[in-house]
Amino acid sequence: MIQELWSGYGKIMRIGLEHGSVESVVIKHVQLPIHRNHPRGWNTDIGHQRKLKSYEIETTWYKTYSKNSAARLPNCLAIETQDNEVLMVLEDLDQSGYPLRKRSVGWEEIASCLKWLAQFHASYLGQVPDGLWEVGTYWHLATRPQELAVLDDERLKAAAPLIDEKLNSCTYKTFVHGDAKLANFCFAQDGQIAGVDFQYVGGGCGMKDVAYFIGSCLNESECERLEAQILDTYFDYFQGELKEKNKALEAEWRSLYRVAWADFHRFLKGWSPSHWKINSYSERVTAEVIDNL
User: Fold this and answer.
1) What's residue 52's pLDDT?
2) Which of 118, 120, 158, 117 is CA-nearest to residue 141?
3) DSSP per-residue codes, 83-149
4) With contact defined as beta carbons under 8 Å apart, do 161 and 141 qualify?
5) DSSP structure class, residue 244
6) 89, 131, 202, 243: least CB-packed within 10 angstroms?
């Protein structure tokens, strides 16, 4: 057993093989729970349907799109669907040289993750997310009406649709990972990385992934101090992945970094008002974004 899936929707296991071409595989086994049990009490049909759709989308991702990624991710070896169960057989990234998981990182590891995101976003630039989330990420506004309803920051609540629209109407779109937190990256000894967990992959601005990733691994003073360096590093890698530089895209996406930050902040304040990620940097960024709408 590697881990239970969120809210009791199945499990991820490592399985040893006999006489196989590899020693082991990772199985993601989705089983719909008889009794739904959300860690923060959000046991609703909206949440249930969102999770169901997320697993359907992950199977579509592996069947149709994953092989086109320049960023390293697990090869999908087989998918079986039966009744209310899904079985995904994936490459064991530990066996393939990515055995390390990190709870804290320095700048080198952050830069490696930004490189991964840049490669991923460049791989799907301009593509239509057919069969994926039309708008990627697990927190986007259309899928989170309850969290918005209980948000007690009235100014942010009123601005939420405008923030959402600003992100969704950007000229340059790609596929976003949708849950690009530090825990979803596997590290090799030499610093190379691979990404996992594609339930919320879909269309959108790449800054959603970047802002969310940075918020998952840096404290508020570091988020502020390193902001320019983070964006410069990401775009250096991103432009290097393209056949020719796209300055218009970079200008647009840079202007949306803080908008993406405010968008996730909106979700977090409704979902878990006491969460450690809610800090003065996020509040200041969000206030500035609202002022500029």
Assistant:
1) 86
2) 158
3) TTEEEEEEE-TTTTT--B--SS--HHHHHHHHHHHHHHHHHTTT---TTSBSS-STT-GGG-HHHHH
4) yes
5) S
6) 243
**Distance of alpha carbon 86 from alpha carbon 65, whole angstroms:** 18
User: What's the pLDDT tens digit per position in 105-138?
Assistant: 999 999 999 999 999 999 999 999 999 999 999 9
Q: For residue 144, give both structure tokens.
A: 């989170």
The one-letter amino acid code at 12 reads I
3 state SS of 257: helix
Q: Which of 159, 116, 135, 138 has the alpha carbon at shortest distance from 46? A: 138
State the pLDDT at residue 165.
98
For residue 86, how many C-alpha atoms fall within 13 Å in the half-sphere facing its CB? Answer: 20
How far, in Å, CA of 165 to CA of 178, rounded? 17
Quick one: which H or E segment has residue 163? helix 154-168
Please state, in angstroms and rounded to a whole number, the distance separating the CA atoms of residues 42 and 150.
12
**Token pair of 242, please?**
């393209």
Which of 159, 158, 155, 139 lies closest to 147, judged by CA?
Answer: 139
In this prediction, residue 272 carries a pLDDT of 94
Long-range interactions of 242-249: CB distance < 8 A, separation 24+: 242/122, 242/125, 246/172, 248/171, 248/172, 249/125, 249/171, 249/172
Q: What domains are there in the chain, each with its CATH number?
A: 3-91 (3.30.200.20), 107-292 (3.90.1200.10)
**For residue 42, what pLDDT is reported?**
45
B/e letters for 11-31, b = 16+ CB within 10 Å, e = fewer, are: ebeeeeeeeeeeeebbbbbbe
3-state secondary structure of 13: strand
Residue ranges of the chain with pLDDT lower than 70? 34-44
- Model pLDDT, residue 282: 97
- What pLDDT does residue 43 have? 55
